[in-house]
Amino acid sequence: MRNKNLIVNPVFVGCLTLLFLNDHLFKTAYHNGLTGKVSDMAGIVLFPMLLAYLFPKLRENAVFVAGLFFVFWKSPFSGNLIRLYNLVSPVSIHRLVDYTDLWVLLLLPVPYFLIRNSWYLEKIRLKKISVSIVLVPAVFVLMSTSPPYSYFYIPEKGTLIFRGASMEIRKTKTDLLTEMDAHHVAWVKDTAEVIESLRFEISKMGKFDQNALKNGGPVFTINNDELRLLILKKIHESSDYKIPELKVGERTVKNLRFSIEPSYREINQKKFSTVVIREVEIDKNLDHDKAGKELREMYQDIIISKFKNF
Q1: From 31, 79, 134, 140, which residue has the greatest number of CB atoms within 10 Å?
Q2: Which residues contact 181 (CB under 8 A, 6 or more apart)?
Q3: Are 114 and 9 in contact (CB under 8 A)?
């Protein structure tokens, strides 16, 4: 007999809500090491409880089955299974091979305690929530995980803005830039991005003369030498770059903006970097269908082929 308390409790519902919000909102808005782990933390807690509910005979071993499946899921061996599933399923699934995610297995004692202690589940169960309200979303959220990379196209400027387009490469920032030089790819620091990020600091450095509004003269003054040193310092420290022109197949794209950040997902972080693609200029005034085609071309040629082959 199924125990509905396994899925209608604050722990399960809270993890389910966090998993959905992180995969479909937080990862896009705040792409960092934390959002990359939160989904695994929530999933490793709720998945054994879901298994124990769906398969009552598995209840005593649900935690161990979930742990083994998680290890398999995070390994390259699951790749063929995922590709086969995506060929026949209308809801595609995605995952990144990352062995550092395995530390979340340390959270398995949480569902283990809840599954083994029915008295506690009865005590904390959400009486006003039915099983169907929780069960159906749980299945779809676990199947969908993170959405594929998305984009935003500005037709007037021909700018293609990428959302969540990042990759881990087995090169340090210095190695990658050196490889780009060797391939005769001209790159520069993205000074516009740096200056934009300094707006607040610049406003603090200046002085506002209210009397100048009536008497004439400069309303806002700033020490230009001090400002120049600040900008040069920030440019030197910045990890934001721009490629003014890049040959992609038979065409040339302009102003590819990207950043090279430390890797937070690899075990040996010193040998890896995270490349985040931000935007690129393509043809202007494309209709929706052509913009979609351009996106696929840019994603395949720039993100996959270009950076990983430098």
Answers
A1: 134
A2: none
A3: yes
